[in-house]
Write a sequence for this structure.
């Protein structure tokens, strides 16, 4: 493998890796788009819960748009090369959207808590204006924490084997390709992960502890079951996102002896499984949205 030294930096490339037989991994791409169109065009779905679901669908679409070009480039055209600048841009958007998705899940946990603990004030607390402000703050946070990473990577010298384990670029792996001192990147990346993903997961856990406390105080068993069932879909999505994301980060940072195949599979699970399952899980749990989707495809079939 040709080494990438300082004089070759501007023209240096990374080589991406894919798994043969995964050409159809992005067939789920239209599902979030369908959900967005239905929620946008149906006034009865203009409620906080569905607005948060729209935010989640937008991040899923963003992740798909960012990763589709390189993934399909490998499988369809056997094009494995990616320039450093494009790689840095891709990892910036991937990590930003992942952190934004984490915050959307936090908002959805807060939404469930308000709906169960204070249903009479639900509409007055989660107004459209307040939701928009929270969404903007969370987007800015997701972008701000990742913004320094591409610039830090750009100043490194890359002189090691430049074959990446995935069909897209991730910060944890790209920085290991450098022959410079990467301690700043490693510490900052770990700090960002702890201060965002771990903090969000703890706040979500706290929200559900409070939800459980509220639900247990409800006298009717049927009401308890109904309230908890409304939270099941969100809990499933949260588990997929955090278990996969934190697991991949730990493996890439501290488990250097792990099989490349393990890292490849975990990378696909981390980036593809949550966006694939989110629309399906939420659509199945929401009666109104499920009915709209079935009606849409039934009319098209006719």
């Amino acid at each position: 493998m040709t080494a990438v030294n300082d004089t070759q930096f501007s023209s240096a490339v990374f080589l991406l890796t894919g798994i043969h037989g995964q050409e159809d991994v992005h067939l789920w791409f239209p599902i979030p788009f369908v959900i967005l169109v239905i929620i946008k065009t149906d006034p009865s779905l203009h409620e906080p819960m569905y607005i948060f679901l729209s935010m989640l669908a937008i991040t899923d679409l963003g992740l798909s748009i960012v990763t589709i070009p390189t993934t399909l480039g490998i499988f369809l055209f056997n094009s494995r090369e990616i320039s450093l600048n494009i790689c840095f841009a891709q990892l910036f958007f991937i990590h930003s959207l992942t952190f934004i998705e984490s915050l959307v899940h936090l908002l959805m946990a807060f939404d469930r808590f308000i709906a169960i603990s204070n249903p009479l004030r639900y509409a007055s607390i989660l107004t459209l204006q307040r939701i928009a402000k929270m969404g903007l703050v969370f987007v800015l946070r997701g972008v701000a924490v990742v913004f320094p990473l591409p610039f830090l990577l750009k100043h490194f010298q890359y002189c090691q084997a430049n074959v990446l384990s995935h069909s897209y670029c991730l910060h944890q792996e790209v920085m290991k390709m450098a022959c410079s001192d990467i301690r700043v990147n490693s510490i900052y990346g770990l700090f960002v992960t702890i201060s965002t993903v771990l903090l969000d997961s703890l706040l979500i856990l706290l929200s559900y502890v409070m939800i459980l406390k509220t639900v247990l105080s409800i006298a009717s068993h049927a009401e308890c079951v109904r309230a908890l069932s409304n939270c099941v879909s969100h809990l499933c999505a949260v588990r997929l996102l955090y278990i996969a994301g934190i697991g991949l980060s730990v493996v890439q940072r501290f488990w250097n002896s792990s099989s490349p195949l393990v890292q490849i599979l975990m990378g696909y699970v981390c980036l593809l499984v949550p966006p694939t399952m989110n629309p399906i899980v939420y659509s199945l749990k929401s009666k109104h949205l499920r009915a709209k989707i079935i009606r849409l495809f039934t009319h098209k079939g006719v």
About this structure: The domain at 12-301 is CATH 1.20.1070.10 (Rhopdopsin 7-helix transmembrane proteins).
